Amino acid sequence: MKAVVAVTGVILFGFVLLHMLGNLKALTGKDAQGVPHIDTYGRFLRTMGEPLLPHGFALWSVRIVLLVALVLHVGMVMRLETQNRAARPIRYHHRLVLVESTVAARTMLVTGMLLLVFIVIHVLQFTTGTIQVTPIEPEQVYTNLYNAFTVWFIALFYVIAMGLLGLHLYHGVWSLFQTLGIDNPDRNRGLRLTAVMTAVILFLGFCSVPLLFVMGTMPEPPGQTAALATPPEESP
Amino acid sequence: MKLTLQVWRQRNADDAGRMARYRIDGVRPDMSFLEMMDLLNEQLNQRGEDPVAFDSDCREGVCGTCSMVINGRPHGPSRGTATCQLYMRHFSDGARITIEPWRAKAFPVIRDLVVDRSAFDRIMQAGGYVTVHSGPKPDPNALPVEPEVAELALDAATCIGCGACVAACPNGAAMLYTAAKVSHLGLLPQGQPERYQRVQSMVAQMETEGFGACRNYAECEAACPKKISISFISRMNRDFLRATLAEPVNPRGTMDSQ
């Protein structure tokens, strides 16, 4: 069961890494035609492998894999947690003094649950556009980002969520090697360092986008005035 | 030294139990923790009260019988020692000390501070037999063992089965104990024939006993009186996954492809 948590963790982690690299496209500007790079990238995700695969096939395959991985990850953790609670029916009178575990390790369950809530909100906001705090228009990735992240509380919300992600990965990335039996005394320092680096790099990489937008350092999207003039399409 | 002790009292397995408070006088700093408990029991006897039941045997840190959670830490505050090797000089005069039994579903309390640790014996039994040479005495060094491997196997074999790893784990997991027992035979040439079958049955028994799951907190390593490393847990996971994924359930089965 723990191996399932670890393997699905690797899948989700791989996705998060690609997601960050994709996000950084928002910072690279626009091409000669004035189309932001991230919009081109967004189209690429839909048309990936197009002559061979139908439109959106690759994107939906990845989404299904991720959804299955997420459900398994959460489901197995819930089963393990039930087992753990049953393993000590009578608690200690004097709280157990924890001396070795990190804050990240002790809060895995809390950060995990908050991240799950975040993922739902994030998908509803940017993928389905169900929650329209700021207007979300299909295929206009840069414009959508600009509109959302120049609002300070949205940027703050995302930065906090990424802090939680960093904490979760700081323990998770090392822990999965231990669970899969890949860790040993020679590799331990390297694997610990990997966990710290991934947590820090992902946090900085993800946060750079909302922070740069909210600080007003990013250029306005092309056709910004036109986009604001036409009211956003009401989603049914 | 004068101390205030809060001790778990429970008449038998069916009793709900409660914390009782005792004041104790005349404790010397050079007394071991168990000698302090003996002194408490003498004073309780003189007052005509029931002495506190606790486990102890060798009192020199090799048998793994003593088992007390002292102020929220199994075997007390000092590292790499059992309760019997803990001295009263580690506590200040007038200190309040909370003393509780190991807490785990798989370790039911028998009386006061005494718990039933036979779950550990059953994990060991699940390991089964080891095919070793019997009959006439073999030549010394007939079976070469690398010194580093022998040392590592002995590191695992230093486990005295006290159960502090379970008591210290926020999840009540027995991974460090099982890993030490699995690794010590799994590392040596004598343990190779049943290596993968053994890890599977011991892990299965560990789960049947109702221990929790490992979340890699490493609290067990900190509480272990023999300082056994969690690297053995990784080693056991490696063997377990290899046994589960790489070996067919029935290696002699036929393929029936047509």
Brief characterization of the structure:
The complex is a heterodimer of chains A (236) and B (258). Chain A is mostly helical.
Explain what the structure shows.
The complex is a heterodimer of chains A (236) and B (258). Chain A is mostly helical and 236 residues long. Chain A has a single domain (2-229), classed as 3 helical TM bundles of succinate and fumarate reductases (Up-down Bundle), CATH 1.20.1300.10. Chain A contains nine helices and no strands. Chain A is globular and about 65 Å long. Chain A starts with a helix and ends in a 7-residue tail after the last helix. In chain A, 26% of the residues are buried. By secondary structure, chain B is of the alpha+beta class. Chain B folds into two domains: 3-100, Beta-grasp domain (Ubiquitin-like (UB roll), Roll), CATH 3.10.20; 117-246, Alpha-helical ferredoxin (Fumarate Reductase Iron-sulfur Protein, Chain B, domain 2, Orthogonal Bundle), CATH 1.10.1060.10. Chain B is built from eight helices and seven strands; from the N terminus they run E-E-H-E-E-E-E-E-H-H-H-H-H-H-H. In chain B, the strands form two sheets. Chain B has a five-stranded mixed beta sheet with strand order 2-1-5-3-4. In chain B, a hairpin with a 2-residue loop joins strand 6 (109-111) and strand 7 (114-115). In chain B, helix 5 runs antiparallel to helix 6 and helix 6 (195-208) crosses helix 8 (231-246). The longest helix of chain B is centred in the last third of the chain and has 16 residues, at 231-246. Chain B is elongated, with a radius of gyration of 22 Å. The mean pLDDT of chain B is 93. The chains are: A mainly alpha (236), B alpha+beta (258). At the A-B interface, helix 3 and helix 7 of A face helix 7 and helix 8 of B.
